[in-house]
Predict the 3D structure of the following.
Amino acid sequence: MKESITGRVGRIVSSSMNALMDAIENVAPEMVMEEAIREVDGALDDVRAELGKTLAHKHLAEQRLAESRKNHADLSEKIQLAVTERRDDLAEAAIAQQMDIEAQLPVLEKSVAEAAAQEKELNGFVSALQAKRREMKEELQRFITAENAKGSLAPNAPQGGSTQTRYADKAARAGSAFERIMEKNTGLPGQSVSTNTAAKLAELEELSRKNRIKERLAAVKAGETLE
């Protein structure tokens, strides 16, 4: 049975890189790390694909709901006109159509609400996976630093750095997935992002995250002051 997105995200976020490496013997640590980061990237792609479908479904449901409400209001005016003109037959036909719309409205409202809830959940999954990827990159950096330090003690040790570059490229690769998924599932054109732009956007995301951390800290301090 295929693993659900919820279960997959939960497993990845709760996993430990150290535990993963300890559990696999006779395997190069870098290969284990590479596979773990690749799984996070794959999970992000899948979650964003599901998010794209959810956004498209929500948009269509909202459109249908708005149209149904508008038609219901228009029919009310027409019913009033038919009554004024003593055309009970036309009024009855309009009322019958109104009743059909009223039967559909709760279903459409529920569909919009469920899509909004799923959108929120999937956005939470994206944030959690991004946080996990940051954590894994930090652990990877510590590993590379330790390996380079050991290598520098050995005679004629080769210069390091290629592994770090390779993982930096992997982290940047996942950034374009959302645009591809949105274009495929909604028909809306995606945006091509250059490597330089992607790096700046990643820096901006990190800056925004740090700002949110400071805001939360300020809110906690303000709460302590008020007590």
Summary: The longest helix spans residues 88-153. DSSP finds seven helices and no strands in the chain.
